[in-house]
Design brief:
The chain is built from 4 helices and 13 strands. With 257 residues, the chain is α+β, with helices and mostly antiparallel strands. The chain folds into 2 domains: 30 residues; 214 residues, Exo-inulinase, domain 1 (Jelly Rolls, Sandwich), CATH 2.60.120.
Length: 257
């Protein structure tokens, strides 16, 4: 009799575990938030089916010639006409989480604290109109680099433009990257002047916005031509288009005090 009761108890416990596990998986569904995440203040920036919350640079409409929604992801099209995606809302202190995957030899990035009035360091009034137009539609701001870090493509100083780097400014520490075609998770934290880049649960780098060290590094790059680059201020989140296929999903953010 005791054996039967023990067996029933074990079966009941197993059923309970299955129910809890199923509930947890349901709470972490694609492009959705769990109850715990909602309580922590997270919100989705992409609902998986519409372009709500996103538009083109400089107040232009969603650039449907270069971006599309596919299987719960927002992805680039193989189109070289340019056009980055920008959030309608601006953020100051925040934690951003994004799942991404890239094609072989692909190149993309996540920019943040983007000021729409900033111009590309390569912008010149004498450029052809089409070239100037494309540069207007490309964002400028601190960038979490996303790249197929193919060893065959590496060059001197490649770490400063490798996956997870603060593009041209800080290299990542020992990034563990899933190969092209597989999903990775990026996390960007900005709390006051302090910023961090994470990849697949591991911290890659940290730095201080507006600091003498950061601004000295900026002076050694093309971004020295952009007034205010490296100074903290509210700005937009941007997904960049560099002509190669890249996919984003589960894009969520929470504001930090």
């Amino acid at each position: 009799m005791d054996y039967k009761f023990r067996l029933l108890g074990i079966l009941g416990w197993a059923v309970a575990v299955c129910l809890i596990t199923s509930a947890g998986l349901a709470g972490a569904e694609l492009n959705g938030l769990s109850t715990e995440e909602k309580a922590q203040g997270w919100k989705m920036l992409f609902d998986g089916t519409t372009t709500t919350g996103w538009r083109g640079m400089k107040g232009t409409p969603f650039p449907s010639q270069t971006w599309t929604i596919e299987d719960g992801s927002i992805r680039t099209l193989e189109d070289h006409s340019g056009g980055d995606l920008i959030t309608e809302e601006a953020f100051s202190s925040f934690e951003l989480a994004v799942e991404w995957k890239i094609s072989p030899r692909g190149n993309s990035g996540i920019k943040y604290l983007v000021q729409e009035e900033w111009l590309s360091p390569h912008f010149r009034p004498d450029l052809p109109e089409r070239q100037k137009h494309n540069q207007w539609l490309s964002a400028v701001g601190p960038e979490y680099q996303i790249l197929d870090d193919d060893p065959a493509e590496r060059h001197p100083g490649w770490e400063l433009s490798s996956t997870g780097s603060l593009y041209l400014l800080y290299s990542p520490h020992n990034p563990q990257i899933n190969p092209p075609g597989e999903w990775n998770t990026a996390r960007i934290v900005v709390r006051g002047d302090h910023a961090e880049h994470w990849l697949n649960g591991e911290k890659l780098l940290e730095y201080e916005l507006s600091s003498p060290e950061l601004l000295a590094r900026v002076e050694k790059t093309k971004f020295r031509k952009v007034p205010g680059y490296g100074i903290r201020g509210p700005g937009h989140i941007v997904l960049t288009h560099h002509g190669a296929p890249v996919w984003f999903r589960n894009i969520k953010i929470r504001k930090l005090e």
